[in-house]
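Worked Example 4.2. Consider the chain below.
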Amino acid sequence: MRTTLNIDDDIMNKVMSYTGQKNRSEAVRIVLSSFIKDQKKKKYWLLEARLI
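Applying the procedure from the previous section yields the following structure tokens:
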């Protein structure tokens, strides 16, 4: 999906540095995928805490 985003240059530079990517699209994809994984883990652990 093609999307236009307005991302601060400092943030984008950090994202590209942390991911090691030179391609902005790939760097953003990696960060978004990581965010989704983290949210799923958080949701799982919150659910587990309620069951205990």
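Residues 7 and 13 are 10 Å apart (CA to CA). Residues 24-51 form the longest helix (28 residues). Compare this with Example 4.1 before moving on.
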